[in-house]
Amino acid sequence: MPLEPDQLAEIEALRGETYQTLRATVPGMEKHLYTPLSVLDHGFVRVIDYMGDDSAITQAARVSYGKGTKSVQNDEGLIRYLMRHWHSTPFEMCEIKLHVKLPVFVARQWIRHRTANVNEYSARYSILDREFYIPAPNALAAQSVVNNQGRGEALSGEEAERVLRYLRDDAMRCYDHYEEMIGQGGQQGLARELARMNLPANIYTQWYWKVDLHNLFHFLRLRADAHAQYEIRVYADAICEVVRDWVPAAYGAFENYRMGGANLSATALDCIRRMLKGETVTQETSGMSKGEWREFEGLIG
Amino acid sequence: MPLEPDQLAEIEALRGETYQTLRATVPGMEKHLYTPLSVLDHGFVRVIDYMGDDSAITQAARVSYGKGTKSVQNDEGLIRYLMRHWHSTPFEMCEIKLHVKLPVFVARQWIRHRTANVNEYSARYSILDREFYIPAPNALAAQSVVNNQGRGEALSGEEAERVLRYLRDDAMRCYDHYEEMIGQGGQQGLARELARMNLPANIYTQWYWKVDLHNLFHFLRLRADAHAQYEIRVYADAICEVVRDWVPAAYGAFENYRMGGANLSATALDCIRRMLKGETVTQETSGMSKGEWREFEGLIG
Amino acid sequence: MPLEPDQLAEIEALRGETYQTLRATVPGMEKHLYTPLSVLDHGFVRVIDYMGDDSAITQAARVSYGKGTKSVQNDEGLIRYLMRHWHSTPFEMCEIKLHVKLPVFVARQWIRHRTANVNEYSARYSILDREFYIPAPNALAAQSVVNNQGRGEALSGEEAERVLRYLRDDAMRCYDHYEEMIGQGGQQGLARELARMNLPANIYTQWYWKVDLHNLFHFLRLRADAHAQYEIRVYADAICEVVRDWVPAAYGAFENYRMGGANLSATALDCIRRMLKGETVTQETSGMSKGEWREFEGLIG
Amino acid sequence: MPLEPDQLAEIEALRGETYQTLRATVPGMEKHLYTPLSVLDHGFVRVIDYMGDDSAITQAARVSYGKGTKSVQNDEGLIRYLMRHWHSTPFEMCEIKLHVKLPVFVARQWIRHRTANVNEYSARYSILDREFYIPAPNALAAQSVVNNQGRGEALSGEEAERVLRYLRDDAMRCYDHYEEMIGQGGQQGLARELARMNLPANIYTQWYWKVDLHNLFHFLRLRADAHAQYEIRVYADAICEVVRDWVPAAYGAFENYRMGGANLSATALDCIRRMLKGETVTQETSGMSKGEWREFEGLIG
Question: How many whole angstroms separate alpha carbon C90 and alpha carbon D225?
Fold first, then answer.
């Protein structure tokens, strides 16, 4: 993800100007501000702004006039209580704004999270750069044989080489034709809004994305999950690192109750009760389907 | 948009089963149900379901127990009043569900309308069909020379031919490699969620899209507008025809106040007042920028 | 909840007109349509319209052209899978519209569920009826001594009588003054939008409320829960009965995974694993707070 | 709006701590932070936090890496362009968090704006204060005789006195009984969640309210409008003053295009064109209803 010199200069300029503020301020986030965190081969996540901190969550939950005289420990207990009991509105009181550069096929998954604000780089007005995501060898996964949606082992040898050649060559050829069609060399040229349709989905786009902490946690739970596609998961992982620095107590509760936790059905809870009483429960006696039972065993095994 | 025989059979089966209902029912919509309206070269819009009619709007506005004894004329007057005064919630009481087949680059614009429900065909699980949007000759527009976002005249001659050749050949080659990479022929094959990234943005996707009438009007105002990209406008136009059959009074008010209407600034209103008093107002004396003045002249000229 | 004769006549008129439709139709819902289900002393829930059925969920999940050839059993399995894996968008493809009459303090909780469409009876335009919620003796609960938010035993004897007297007398007096202030008897009268502020929060209001099934399930999970306030829970319970008749497979999955299920933290899952291996885990060794441990014991005990 | 000494101390403490930040910072907003602006007799609006400034709008519209080298004048031109053409997403990139104290009947209107985050003081957990909105004499308006929703002249003399007496006495009596019912004096007491229903709608509540600038503008357009109820308009007016200090260019565009502007129908635009050509247009020849024509004359007269 090598930024252009003028982009780096703009970022340095922003990091060079310090202001005085009375707002809730988090030193760990000030370090992140504006600096890109590399993701994939050309992508990044940059924190552009943030609002609130752990205290802003409890302050709103209490509808208090100030920070209150409650200790940090009390705050953490309240945050865990709110997370456990699905009191989501206090977490909505924190907000973050990110600048993200990402392949189009990742952007298409990401945008499905509707409760967020987005401004995307417009390929109707502007010309896209020649930057495409080409998977690293260990990310060149085969289709899973057990799961329609999953990945198996990485391809290797000739098959891997052929795949990489196709991805690279097709991207380059499509981009060459894109450039030629929009006709920078004196011709009139095809409208940009049309020419862009020749570009494959591994081309990079970028956007400003702003979201509140509750909805960000929802995004992270789904996208930092082991079942999410690798190419979006690495973005979610990068954002997790940022959130840990931003609201450590809330992130801790999120990790414990959401990321590391699980939703058990009434049937599953009943099986646990029976097992704790000494009964041997099998898939056949569990009342679960085979798929459910496999997931259940994975959780408690 | 030639549907496969089994798809046509499924649609015919749906149109063959009639039910009794007490719900608000609109004969004009019953005719539309399930049947695809062709859009672009391979796309369509199909009405899958609808809730409510013109009366449902006034019934909700009045929070009434039944249809009320008000005449149709009163209903229409109330609907116009609600539209004029931006009372949007009664229009939210009608809902429509569409099945849409559309190119990916159109889908990317469409999805920006967040207040809707969407289920898209998944290229993580499933294999996309070999169907790409190739513009008709008269839609092969040049980049506008006056407007970054606009289109000029249609390209012609050799340039047009070259563009069409690029679009077709690149689509076919990318799809050939997509098929080869997912390896239907006995090999293991690249994961579908990865292989899809080789496909250009003119490939067709499809989704179920459900939206309330207020948000649909917002979508139509922006996307059936002359400034919208042609390829999404034709979808909006098709939907306008459906809505006209569904809620004629509401659609009439929408056409008069939104599609055919305009938002004038305080400055523009002041210019109109001055002009009506006989003053000759020019861009220089108007208080408007050149761009604004041009738009203003377009409205009142 | 005695409706006025003209209201009953309007409802009967609606139930008397049957239409032919090609839309998905659910016999169990046709029985509910328009008829009020009594809730509390003067409230009700009436189904005004609905869109979709169990098949509409799987149809959208598969983005299919028709109902598909899949069996009902396959549909149910898919619905359970979608619910278990938090695939929420297919459930958004069903929509319901209710007419609800409810006390203002219940309406204030209800409206916090933002992803819904609402048209409320306007006390700016119209005059509210003299109808107030007065709790039945067994609902006249004392403040819980262990839980700030909870209820204890029902009050009885003189205290109960005094409370009921206050609630009744204050409501009647406030309403008398409301009526007098708006001055129906020839005087000019205080503006209705002002006079209404003299009315206590147990007065009844009513609204049209439209919501998709996913967001309705979210509402029901929180409001049909044992910790919800009794006065909103009875509305949620009434709606549960309707939903069971509407989408039985989806409701079954909801009951098993959401209502009867539980979200366990990483810590709780770890405790279960230790207990299943024979370890005796106590609150002290569990890593949970006392409150969490109490909830955990309630689940698995 | 006399705050308690401990509340004032909390606010002073917050205003006493200054932090260094790299985030976009607006001096005019730093002055507002935490300090309550009085509204009505006991209400207030306090700015708790803000994100972004005018530059944040154009930065997002351009998806730029820094502030860009564009001049302030260019920024203002772009902001006006975005506002004029309903490009709403860049305005969503600014966010504000307010602490508001307001009467319940105002809160009930306010909450209808769904695209915002809210944490309200809970009368299930906590005891409400004895604070009620009693209109000032000039706000004691009569019902309008021409408009169901409007206000006429202020009441005066005996009628005004009687109204004020009712409002005060009923509020005090209801609150006395509320206190008595929750039984602070050793008895068990009615559950708070029930007792609150005896309180009239002019009692004050409070909440934290967080919203993006686009949705705030929508709120202000409707609630700072001359047709909005006076008691919510004064809150909107107070917020307008804050927004003017926060994002002066965006607020200027909002004033010109939204607050001071108007939406004209196709019919109205046609009338203007005819009038500018010298035709005398009357209501009868205008194609408008009487109500529409009256509004039209008000705009251009």
Answer: 40
Phi and psi dihedrals of A112, rounded to 5? -65, -20
Report residue C85 CA to chain centroid gap.
Answer: 24
Task: Please classify residue C285 by burial: count the beta carbons closer than 10 Å to its beta carbon, then call 0-12 exposed, 13-18 middle and 19+ buried.
Answer: exposed
Strand partners, D100: D45, D207
How many interchain CB pairs under 8 A, C with D? 159
Which residues 154-173 of chain D have a CB within 8 Å of chain A? none
Across the interface, whether the CB atoms of A201 and B202 are under 8 A apart is answered no
Please report, for residues B141, C19, C47, the alpha-carbon distance to residue B20 in angstroms, rounded to integers and kept in the order given.
49, 6, 17
Indicate the CATH number for domain B5-133+202-259: 3.30.1360.170
Angle at A242 between CA A236 and CA A245, to 5 degrees: 145
Q: Which residue of B has its CA nearest to A144?
A: B191
Nearest to C93 among B24, B121, B208 (CB): B208
Classify residue C145 by its DSSP letter.
S
**How far is Cα A109 from Cα A113, in angstroms, rounded to an integer?**
8
Which residue is catalytic, options D223, D233, D273, D294? D223
Which residue among B30, B95, B120 places its CB closest to the CB of C21? B30
CA–CA dist A271, C143 (Å, integer): 36
CA distance, residue A61 to nearest chain B CA (Å):
28
**Alpha carbon B205 to its chain's center:** 15
User: For the domain D5-132+203-259, what is the CATH code?
Assistant: 3.30.1360.170
Q: How far C271 CA lies from chain A's nearest CA (Å)?
A: 10
* Helices A290-300 & C72-84 angle (0-180, nearest 10): 20
Domain spans of chain C, in order of start: 5-133+203-259, 134-201, 266-300
Give the distance from CA B219 to its chain's centroid. 6
Least CB–CB distance from B299: residue in D89, D269, D300: D269
**Which residue of C87, C256, C297 is the best one to mutate when testing the A interface, meaning the one whose CB has the most A CBs within 10 A?**
C256
ipTM: 0.94
**Residue B1: other Cβ atoms inside 10 A:** 14
Instruction: For residue C285, give the H/E element and its range.
Output: helix C283-286
Q: Which residues of chain A from 91 to 150 reach within 8 Å of chain B, CB to CB? A: 103-105, 108, 111-112, 114-115, 118, 122, 124-126, 133, 135, 139-145, 148-150
pLDDT per residue of chain A (301 residues) written in tens, 0 to 9: 578 899 999 999 999 999 999 999 999 999 999 999 999 999 999 999 999 999 999 999 999 887 765 666 788 999 999 999 999 999 999 999 999 999 999 999 999 999 999 999 999 989 999 999 999 999 999 988 766 667 888 999 999 999 999 999 999 999 999 999 998 655 679 999 999 999 999 999 999 999 999 999 999 999 999 989 999 999 999 999 999 999 999 999 999 999 999 999 999 999 999 999 999 999 999 999 999 999 999 999 8
Sign of CA dihedral A285, A291, A295, A301: positive
Compute how many other C-beta atoms are within 10 angstroms of the C-beta atom of residue C69: 10
Residues 6+ apart with CB under 8 A from B156: B137
Residues from chain C that touch A299, judged by Cβ atoms under 8 A, are: 269
Q: Are B91 and B214 in contact (CB under 8 A)?
A: yes
What is the end-to-end Cα distance of chain D in Å, rounded? 41
Q: Rounded to an integer, what distance in angstroms lies between the CA atom of residue D79 and that of residue D106?
A: 32
Please give the CATH number for the structural domain made up of A5-133+203-259.
Answer: 3.30.1360.170
Active site (catalytic) residues of C: 223
* B:C CB pairs within 8 Å: 156
Name which of A266, A275, A289 is nearest C260 (Cβ-Cβ).
A266
Determine the residue of chain B that is closest to D113 in CA distance.
B89
DSSP secondary structure of A54-88: HHHHHHHHHT-SSS-S--HHHHHHHHHHHHHTT--
